[in-house]
Specification:
Number of domains: 1
Number of strands: 9
Pfam family, one: DUF1203
Organism: Streptomyces purpureus
Strand content: 25-35%
Helix content: 10-25%
Mean pLDDT: 93
InterPro entries: DUF1203
Bound molecules: zinc ion
Oligomer: single chain
Order of helices and strands: HEEEEHEEEHEE
Structural class: alpha+beta
Distance between the termini: 44 Å
Protein name: DUF1203 domain-containing protein
Radius of gyration: 18 Å
Strand order of the largest sheet: 7-6-8-9
Largest sheet: 4 strands, antiparallel
Shape: globular
Low-confidence stretches: none
Length: 178
């Protein structure tokens, strides 16, 4: 066996745009009281498959999770004195009930089963909706997302986008202008 270094054959590709999950400080708050003011109610997920917005993967049977109400613009807006007003929506998200270490570096966009429908909703620097588009995730899922994000950020007004599931309307993850 030779031991001289070889060039790595399959360095994992990272996504073109940085995928943002719910930040740790927000998770810590949500695990006590959610953005609707309700106490967090953890339970054991007996089936698995819940899309976890803390670490951007699906839950496994037996994990402790919670369904909480989350306002994905709220903390972003507070940090920069943006005023999203009525656009500061909140909605249901699954998270781990306890600290989970968050996502590992994304080598693919999460929750990207081909055929699934997504909304890529665009927001300006004040947190106001400035459009959006429907994305049916293609077989080449990463390329499909890359294209949708490139299209969104081609509009100079767009500061960030939220990817949402169409059927339930719920927030999945965020991408900011690179
Ligand atoms: Zn997690």
């Amino acid at each position: 066996m030779t031991s001289h270094p070889t060039t790595p054959q399959t360095a994992p590709r990272t996504t073109t745009y940085t995928v943002r999950s719910i930040p740790p400080a927000a998770l810590a708050q949500l695990r006590v009281t959610d953005d609707a003011g309700l106490p967090c109610a953890p339970y054991e997920d007996t089936e698995g498959g819940a899309p976890l917005r803390c670490c951007l993967r699906r839950s496994r049977a037996g994990e402790r999770i919670a369904l909480v109400s989350y306002a994905p613009l709220r903390r972003w807006a507070a940090e920069r004195w943006a005023r999203p007003g009525a656009y500061d929506e909140q909605g249901p998200v699954f998270v781990h009930a306890e600290e989970c270490g968050g996502p590992r570096e994304a080598t693919a966009y999460p929750f990207s089963r081909p055929g699934a429908l997504r909304t890529v909703r665009r927001y300006d620097s004040e947190g106001r909706i400035v459009g959006g588009r429907l994305l049916e995730i293609p077989e080449a899922a990463d390329e499909g997302f890359d294209q949708a994000f490139a299209e969104a950020f081609a509009d100079p007004e767009v500061a960030l986008v939220h990817v949402r599931a169409v059927e339930h309307g719920c927030f999945l993850f965020e991408v900011r202008r690179p």
